[in-house]
Design goal:
Hypothetical protein af1432; 5-stranded antiparallel sheet; alpha+beta; binds fe (ii) ion; SH3 type barrels
């Protein structure tokens, strides 16, 4: 997985500035000049970031034992950052999302929430606290489920997931089978947090790290497949079966030579053939596992197949394929903002469409809100248009207004409901950072 130095350096800089402002507020009080200066510096750094990168948000969140900014883990954090993390833990805040337009006053309010006496803010949800004080450009996520005593936060499940899968992957590599009970338990916990937390997909995905690609990838694919299944309204046992199958979809990679899995350069044809075998190996491992659900073997076997028009297809396979490609794009071009998330789906629509069930691809687009109002989209009939109203289910068929018509058939200014003319698709552009991605790179990791 690639993280550019610029992103890593910027993430570290922002982490140090946020933590520094937090620290100096405590140390010098809100009347001190030092505090005003650190706050202004943080505000300026955020604005520079929004302007230069065009990001729609900056996330600061807990990641396992550490802190991640812009989705990038901060290694060897300085002591101010460590203190800042313990403040977040104390307040039960897992992710802070800062958006363009944020003011110094809003940042000050956020830091005063983090710095307040526990007694003053106990039992007040940070989001409500901030909202009541007029903060509009910062939101705070508590992923812990408030409703159930003793239930796990998404973060806990995520990292437990990685550990459980590590054990199952090595069991499969050595003994050739997995423990259906362990995978089933994990799938159940994951499904519960996905369905009950009512957390947007973007927030679930803000958690990521760069180690152990196969494990992190498997948990991500399971989370995304579960979110899609939940959004489709499937019954819980089905959602759980899908999450479970997604967790082991790449288990066959335990039989692929390590050198191929970790090769930085494009694979040779021979290496690609060996890698492609992970589907068959995975299916065999799962079939040989006593008591395992056959669905898991089918998902492992078919998750790299193209979609066959007219075939009945299998929902679990199709949802995993979408989740798989999305997670790989995200690993190749690490991002954490909603615009890039939409861009990754635009990439899938434009470059990988033949692989996916067309209806589920549109639903996946709806899940990440692929084209909100005012998005510019290219119509397959040749026009450029602006989205007037998204379609909540068929996300590539919104209501649009034509803005440029040179190669199209509708005049500028015409409003068209594309859910009536189902032959025309509206697709946003692929972000610049993803334009050089080759579909074969996605196969090599998926
Ligand atoms: Fe995969
Ligand atoms: Fe795979």
């Amino acid at each position: 997985m690639i993280t550019t130095t610029t992103t890593a350096a910027r993430a570290r800089d922002l982490a140090v500035r946020v933590a520094g402002a937090n620290h100096s507020r405590r140390l010098y009080g809100v009347r001190g000049r030092a505090w005003a200066r650190t706050l202004e510096a943080l505000h300026a750094a955020l604005n520079t970031h929004f302007e230069e990168e065009g990001h729609r948000e900056v996330t600061v969140g807990l990641l396992g034992e550490g802190l991640a900014v812009l989705g990038v883990p901060i290694h060897d954090p300085p002591s101010s950052v460590v203190r800042f993390m313990s403040k977040l833990v104390e307040r039960d805040v897992e992710i802070i999302v800062i958006r363009p337009g944020v003011t110094s006053a809003e940042l000050e309010t956020l830091l005063s929430y983090l710095g307040a006496d526990s007694a003053d803010v106990a039992a007040v949800k940070a989001d409500i606290w901030l909202r009541e004080r007029g903060v509009e450009h910062i939101s705070v996520k508590h992923l812990r489920l408030m409703t159930k005593e003793g239930s796990e936060s998404f973060r806990d499940v995520y990292f437990r997931g990685k550990r459980v899968l590590q054990r199952e992957f090595s069991r499969a590599g050595h003994g050739g089978s997995v423990s259906p009970a362990a995978v089933g338990d994990l799938a159940k916990s994951l499904m519960e947090v996905i369905l009950e937390a009512e957390t947007p997909v973007a927030t679930l995905l803000a958690l990521k790290d760069r180690d152990d690609f196969s494990l992190v990838h498997s948990v991500n694919v399971a989370t995304l497949a579960g979110s899609q299944a939940g959004a489709l309204g499937l019954p819980e046992p089905d959602v759980q079966a899908i999450v479970s199958a997604a967790l082991t979809h790449d288990i066959g990679k335990t039989k692929v030579p390590e050198a191929i899995l970790t090769k930085g350069a494009p694979l040779t044809d021979k290496e690609r053939d060996l890698l492609a075998h992970h589907t068959v190996d995975g299916a065999r491992i799962l079939l040989e596992t006593p008591g395992n659900d056959a669905l898991a073997s089918i998902v492992a076997l078919r998750h790299h197949d193209d979609f066959v028009p007219g075939s009945p297809g299998l929902c679990a396979v199709e949802l995993c394929k979408l989740a798989d490609a999305f997670d790989v794009i995200r690993s190749l071009r690490p991002f954490d903002d909603a615009a890039s998330m939409r861009g990754a789906v635009a990439y899938m629509v434009r470059k990988l469409r033949a692989r996916f069930n067309p209806y589920l691809l549109q639903r996946f687009g709806a899940l990440v809100n692929i084209a909100p109002p005012a998005t510019l989209v290219a119509l397959s009939s040749g026009e450029i248009a602006e989205v007037v109203e998204p379609h909540l289910e068929l996300s590539l068929h919104p209501i649009v207004r034509v803005t440029e018509t040179r190669r199209g058939r509708w005049p500028v200014g015409q409003t068209i409901d594309l859910s009536v003319d189902m032959n025309v698709l509206a697709v946003p552009a692929i972000p610049t950072a993803m334009r050089d991605l080759d579909p074969s790179e996605i196969d090599d990791l998926g």
